[in-house]
Amino acid sequence: MPPYLPVPLERVQIGKPLPIDLWSPDGRLLLRRAQILQSPAHRDMLASHQASMTETDARAWQRSLERLMRSLHHDGADLSALGELPLPSEIQEDDFLPDHEVTGGWLDVQDVLRGLLYQGEAAVTPLPRLQALEDRALALLASDPDDGLFTLFQALPDLSLGYCATHALLAGLVSVLSADKLALKPGARSTLMRAALVMNIGMARLQDNLARQKSVPTPLQQHNIDDHAALSVAILQGFGLQDNTLVDIVRRHHTPDLFQGDEVPLTLVRLLNLADTLIAKMAPRQIRHALLPMAATKSLVMQSSKATTELRHAMAAAMGFFPPGSYVQLANGEIAVVIARGPKANTPHVACIINASGMPVSMYSYRDTRTSALAVKAPVPAHTVQVKVNGDKIKRLRQLHGV
Predict the structure, then answer these.
(1) Which element (helix H / strand E) includes 336?
(2) Is residue 94's pLDDT more than 80?
(3) Residue 335: what pLDDT?
């Protein structure tokens, strides 16, 4: 008998055909595919019999819902409302693909992750989906870390994409790069990335709402902020997550000094805490502008303590003063976007996007900031740059110059 999962009947549409079979937990057929849920009373009857579905149907239904959410989001729907959508009454054949596979680039990963974070405790088969997200993020990171930094730092000011998922991916990426600088064991990369992806699952929608909110948090919102780590842990345990170290890292990602464990997990929770704080400082809000990356990085280093000095310096070295995706003014007056980290923290690889006369350029030009005439003069706040950077042009420029 195949394993069954409970059906979220409150999200099944009344009066429309079911796209799957409904079963009792002991394998008795309750309602056949294409039959119609007739009324609230009919739904209550199915609930009394603990209506369930196969894992295969659950995964397909989830994919169908995620595709619908992406379509509505691209059409301009409010992100905060998408998590309450009823389940679709149709499932496409492609949705019945084996396993959970995440393909595409960083923004595709961001899109899928946002859906999982929004669904929270109601997510169907969350652990395979989380594994697929982690695998894809680590594969992209291994392939081209500068592309990851560029894409996600460019996405960070765009609150319409959903801040919670962009923040999570950036925190994971920066944590992993810092772990590499510290020469931590390979297993640290996986633990850090997964912890970063889910550390704020207990406040994902709230995190996005706060980024768009034009006032400070209300007392209720502040209470939920204070409790989000515990709620995230409860959600992960509800998923059936058995990794106690990861759960403890999520529980203490804001209070690393209270972490009870050996030295290696303590290092990981401190790294995640530092990355989480650093990214938050560099993210814009409706009520304030983002802190410049150089200022945020310098603040990171200046606040060193005996326990965290090495970690903070590793993180600063991993990201640099001018991370890919941020903006700088050059000594010749041009405005450039950073396209890759350079040999030193203050000599990034950049592309001119606005000439010295203040006019946007259609053809980007590579600039070598190691030369005095093209040296970085100052960082430039992202909100002052009224030019949309073409990512494809940046990739071609990087390939052309081998950076």
Answers:
(1) strand 335-340
(2) no
(3) 98
- Surface-to-core class of residue 363, CB atoms within 10 Å of its CB (0-12 exposed, 13-18 middle, 19+ buried): exposed
**Pairing, β 376-380 against β 327-330:** antiparallel
pTM listed for this prediction: 0.78
Distance CA 129, CA 31 (A): 27
- The region that residue 256 occupies, defined by phi over 0 for left and psi between -120 and 50 for alpha, beta otherwise, is alpha
Question: CA nearest 27: which of 8, 59, 57, 50?
Answer: 50
CB 347 within 8 A of CB 370: yes
Residue 103 and residue 136 in contact, taking contact as beta carbons nearer than 8 Å: yes
**Residue type for 376, please?**
V
Which residues lie across from 337 on neighbouring strands?
327, 351
> What share of the chain in percent tops pLDDT 70?
95
Residue-level pLDDT at 73: 65
Per-residue pLDDT of 255-271, as tens digits, reads 998 887 677 789 999 99
What's the pLDDT tens digit per position in 279-316? 999 998 888 889 999 999 999 999 878 889 999 999 99
Two tokens, residue 228: 């989000």
From CA 182, how far away is CA 202, in angstroms rounded? 30
Instruction: Single out the residue of 131, 138, 74 nearest to residue 106, CA to CA.
Output: 138
Q: In the beta sheet, which residues pair with residue 351?
A: 337, 366
pLDDT at 178: 97
Q: What mean pLDDT is predicted for residues 366-394? A: 95
* Tokens of residue 280, six digits: 């938050």
Domain ranges of the chain: 4-56, 99-319, 327-401
Length of the chain counted residue by residue: 403
Is 306 exposed, middle or buried (CB count within 10 Å of its CB: 0-12, 13-18, 19+)?
Answer: exposed
CA 172 – CA 253 distance, rounded (Å): 12
**What are the two backbone dihedrals, phi and then psi, of residue 30, each rounded to the nearest 5 degrees?**
-100, -40
What's the distance, CA 146 to chain centroid? 17
d(CA 151, CA 76): 21
| The pair of three-digit structure tokens given for residue 37, joined into one six-digit string | 């849920």
Note the pLDDT tens digit of each residue in 107-143.
999 999 999 999 999 887 888 889 999 999 999 999 9
Superfamily of domain 99-319: Hypothetical protein af1432 (1.10.3210.10)
- C-alpha to C-alpha distance for 73 and 70, rounded to whole angstroms: 5
Longest dimension (CA), the chain: 77
